Fold this protein.
Amino acid sequence: MTQISEVTHSKEPRPPINWPGALVLLITPLAALILLPLYLWSHDISMAAWIVFVIFVMWTGLGITAGYHRLWAHRTYQATWIVQFMLMIGGTLGVQNSILFWASGHRTHHQHVDDVDHDPYSAKRGFWYSHMGWMLRNYPSGESNYKNAPDLLNDPLVMFQHNYYIPLVLLTNIAMPALIGWAVGDIWGVLLMAGLVRLVMSHHFTFFINSLAHMFGTQPYTDENTARDNPWLAFLTWGEGYHNYHHIFQYDYRNGVKWWQFDPTKWLILGLSQVGLTYNLKRIPTLTILHAEVAMKFKRAEANISTAVSSYGHDMQHDMELIRHRFKQEYEAFSTTLNEWKLLKEQAFLLKKAEVSQKIQDADLRLKVDFHLIEQRLQAHGERLEIALRGIQFVKKVG
């Protein structure tokens, strides 16, 4: 299907070049490749320039991830005015268009993910297109349409940035580094490192989420789209690399939902909430996440069993049927657990509406224990399925 779509698109007339986007995306890396070696030939990068570079890299990255993405595109939390302002400036440093344009296009991406005609940066149109090709020409799928962003259209800060975007880009990316460079005694070093090199890096690290994060990695939560979890990309993108999770649970302020996953954006949002600067942080319930994980394990187990049966035929039929029977038992146990979970959620909802406070407190304590037991059972189902999968691999090796 993907190949047919790509062939169809290749026969269509090429859209006109998006000159502003093309000039920025092509000239900035070329300028960095030429100017940096020339500068290093006769100068050293000062410590001040390195410090400003690091600060600007962090500010830009978090402006995109915590601001453009998790705050404005998905509304996963709310923030005070000062936090919004700082994230707006950081996002403007990234030169990835205005909040309104970026967030509206990203919502379209989630609505039509992988659709070669409607997803602005569909990975099914290839690495180059999803990485940056979609911005070099005025493709119909990338046209601005703000019908999906009425909240942003009514946001004064968002509209201020949108209406004065070009002056703000020049102010943040040229005037601000130059002023800081003058203050620390290294105008050209700061302009080169914190301005140009930082901009090129932030561009392509962000673009990796549209391209590589839809091509390389694991799919622990869903295989209904191309999005993948990639911990290596998470290190480059302030936690955005856990993209498979994000595409199934886009309204969670976390991308790296496990405690050990690298997600500085999550830590920033949570940390600011401790001092009242962010609030109403949205989290997907743990049991819902476990449901998705275990369901994928079941799905893969059944696919592996069917593959093994078709591959090894009659000789392996008996062994594979035993594994299939075990899988069926686990699936039935899983279904029972889910039904209990749904019942408990209904009880919790009804109890919240009750008027007797002591009854609610007693029930809440009981429900917390019950929820914990169900969570343990879901995890146990997942572990037993892993054992079953290893059994399939053993049968394959013996065969």
